[in-house]
Amino acid sequence: MKRLALLMVLILGFAGAGFALPVTVNETLTETFQSGATFTGTLTFTSDYSTLTAVNGLLSGGGYGNDPITWVWDTTNYASSFGPQYGCNFLMDGTAATGSYVYFIEVTWDFSGAPTLLLVNLDPNMADQIGNNNINYVDPLVSGKFSAATPEPGSLLLFGTGLMGFAGAMRRKFAK
Asked: Are residues 113 and 42 both part of a single domain?
């Protein structure tokens, strides 16, 4: 009876671990713009990659100095009108509290192949409209890419404690 109970706990534990998906996913974005400016930062997305929720990066060179980019202007997905697989938002150097900024980077991504994200320019001839990648609508993207997904620490902790519990159960089983 104890073995059956232990087996049920293990099965339910592993089944539940499959549903413990991270709420957010971090991606590193590197970009180079026509002016020679670069942006490197960590972007935080919802687990389905459709919405950008946070940014922590640095815009440098090209006359922009060294400008911290730490504010996602609004977590609305502005590219949804282009198609269900696109996301678009503004990365700002100001703060939501003051509502002021100097520079912003527009970023548009395709998440249809998630967890692999692609930068996209939906209409590169219209640098003043949402759906492109540029700085302040006028400094177009020359090159850029997302890195592979970085696991969220909570998921790794959950996985590690599950393994420790499994090892403890096996130890108890074989100790008898």
From this structure: yes
Q: How far is CA 33 from the centre of its chain?
A: 21
State whether 87 and 158 are in the same domain.
no
- Residues 76 and 43 both lie in one domain: yes
* Tens digit of each residue's pLDDT (9 = 90 or more) over 140-156: 999 999 997 555 555 55
Is 125 in the same domain as 163? no
Size of the chain in residues: 176
Which of the residue ranges 54-68, 99-113, 119-133 would you say has the lowest mean pLDDT? Answer: 119-133
What is the pTM assigned to this prediction?
A: 0.71
- DSSP conformation letters of the chain: -HHHHHHHHHHHHHHHHTT---SEEEEEEEEEETTS-EEEEEEEEETTSS-EEEEEEEEESTT--EEEE-EES--S-TTGGG-TTEEEEEEESS-TTT---S-EEEEEEE-TTTTS-EE--S-TT-TTSSSS-EETTTEEEEEEEE---B--HHHHHHHHHHHHHHHHHHHHHHH-
Residue 55's domain comprises 24-150
Dihedral sign for Cα atoms in the order 24, 25, 26, 32:
negative
